[in-house]
Amino acid sequence: MNRGRIYISDEVKIMTQEQGFTIGVDLGGTNLRIAAYTRDAGLLDTILLPTRLAAGCEAVVEDMCGAIIALKDRFDSQYELAGIGVGTPGPLELPAGRLHNPPNLPGWDGFDLRCALEKKLQQTVIVESDANLAALAECVLGRGRTMGVDSLCMLTLGTGVGNGIILGGKIFAGAAGMAGEAGHATIYPDGPLCPCGNHGCLEMYASATAVVRTASQRIAAGLAPALGGKTWSARTLAEAAFAGNPDAKQIYTDAGRALGIGLATLVNTLQLPLYVVGGGLVQAWELLKPAIFEELHHRSYVWRLVEPNSALARHNPRGTTHVLPAELGPDAGLLGACILPFTANGQSSSKS
Amino acid sequence: MNRGRIYISDEVKIMTQEQGFTIGVDLGGTNLRIAAYTRDAGLLDTILLPTRLAAGCEAVVEDMCGAIIALKDRFDSQYELAGIGVGTPGPLELPAGRLHNPPNLPGWDGFDLRCALEKKLQQTVIVESDANLAALAECVLGRGRTMGVDSLCMLTLGTGVGNGIILGGKIFAGAAGMAGEAGHATIYPDGPLCPCGNHGCLEMYASATAVVRTASQRIAAGLAPALGGKTWSARTLAEAAFAGNPDAKQIYTDAGRALGIGLATLVNTLQLPLYVVGGGLVQAWELLKPAIFEELHHRSYVWRLVEPNSALARHNPRGTTHVLPAELGPDAGLLGACILPFTANGQSSSKS
Question: Which of A131, B49, B90, B309 could cross-link to B129 by cystine, CB 3.0-4.6 Å?
Fold first, then answer.
């Protein structure tokens, strides 16, 4: 009977939340996106602003709060505000909501983002790192939903390699919110120096920045004759590779190889039901894919036991591990900020 | 009020369990250890038997059940039996309790250990992999208890490198029980071939087997003049290193380096409050330690942010990450099997 009562009270809570709306913020080094969201309608409206980094963190917080209040005023006659979620580049300390020397927000070291927002808005705000929010969105609204799982590990291949881990529908934050930095897992111990101070991080091989850098290095060294003397972007390199350019293909194969080595360790360590690869570079998924799965097969006996065609998978489909491209596009982080209040993860504010 | 009632019923359950005893089994490739345990008294009695691998898995199950029944008969007039926990070398599929080609139990591929035990005992049995149980014991009774945390990642340096992850006091099993194989994380992608099929696994550098193999390879190649032509064990190598033998020291430094690279990735990925290094090789902790922390410092910016002397640690001690040697000795796995029924992890039987 106890159980029955609790079930009913959960139901009521979920219904209230479903009728409500949330406001999500995606704080980037270049742009600031603020959106209102409901579960039924998705993104109701989005405001795009430049991130005025030169004006200082307080000015950026001012811009954020202005847009949040504008959206709140526009929608709170129709819906009840269920919460405000904010995604920021890390490293972000939780539950405090304090930034620690974030490379994409120069000058914000030690800034207590959650405090500043809550002070100005006079309202609870949940702050999370942007890669964690992309993973949350992919779990709840993207590939996780399609696959029917509530746990996943996501790698976001963009300027860097972001990472987020979702367990049981909630962001896994670690002791101080610093979990989910597998983009800085060591792949080749003697590899190039990463801005994080390590050598041979995954980010140095499998980000958009990395493929472009590899191309120019190989051109300069005379190792990529098929790339000529052109200047390449990740996109034009992928186009050339899809068109059959062997040097462009090799660059994506090498990126896929690094990803496969990193994913093999993540599968061996956590054996989650789903690993998702997202971010801009995943448009080249078909170029990355063969090397990813070759390395996974070689380097993870766990993968060989649990991959979708294994004997185990045939008798125990829920025990299988999948590695798949993301379903959501560049809105993943913003969507994650919007759904964060619904998941009631709460680590940003519940403990402090 | 609901909450009150549930709280009371949990209390009652915990009290009943505390008055009861459990039986734990540590199934190894050489020995079989079966113990009776209470929370107050610890190990009440332990039975040691050889593992009769040549006689087949059914014979070993017969031996196990004989000892379990003997302990049950001896103690069930004094205590109530709260459960039976069994630790086995992996890979072990959960919740089924089925072994998948376990290297240390040749001929047991596909054997449904839990089913066989439950059929013979006519009683529920919880089966887990031995490295997970060592981690559970270290969390509940060892370093985790000392440090006041309920989540940790343990690496057990023995014949191989075992791994177990405990989150919130429970074993993290992954989708099919295959999590916790960071012993097969790739450290050097072009390193030596591991029996698991991968090249350059952590196990190829930081196990007792690995340091002995490294010594003989270096002697054969003339790279370790200070080791002479002797035959070395992990223990004698450690003794020589402690006595100042430079080649023996170098072998432990290299093992520590591989451990540090692996731990840096584990800290970046999960940022748990505690990483524990156990197993026989940890007697050489002081030899491994400098290289472990040098690599951690170099390779994990997360570590630099959250290590015990960091600025974050000073204002947020609960957000800190520690890397420490295990407290429990070779009984860790057996103790883990004994306490498994108390933790009610249940993944071995609750879903199947």
Answer: B90
Contact B197 A318 (CB under 8 A): no
Helix/strand number for chain B, H first, E second: 13, 12
Binary contact (A163, B316; C-beta < 8 A)? no
Place of tokens 């704080």: A27
- Closest-CA distance, A83 to chain B, in angstroms, reads 25
- Which chain B residue has its CA at the smallest distance from A184's CA? B268
Which one of B186, B190, B315, B323 would you mutate to disrupt binding with A, by most A Cβ within 10 Å of its Cβ? B186
Quick check: B198 and A305 CB within 8 A? no
Q: Which of B6, B199, B298 has the CB atom closest to A2's CB atom?
A: B6
Query: What span, in angstroms and rounded, lies between the C-alpha atoms of A168 and B282?
Result: 34
Residue of A nearest to B94 (CA): A319
Residue B75, classed as helix, strand or coil, is helix
CA A200 from chain centre, in angstroms, equals 21
ipTM of the complex: 0.92
Structural domains present in chain B: 2-135+332-343 (3.30.420.40), 142-325 (3.30.420.40)
Interface test with A, best of B187, B269, B312 (most A CBs within 10 A): B269
Query: How far, in Å, CA of A215 to CA of B272, rounded?
Result: 37
Please work out, in degrees rounded to the nearest 5, the angle formed at the alpha carbon of residue B252 by the alpha carbons of B154 and B105.
50
Facing residues of B157 across strands? B161
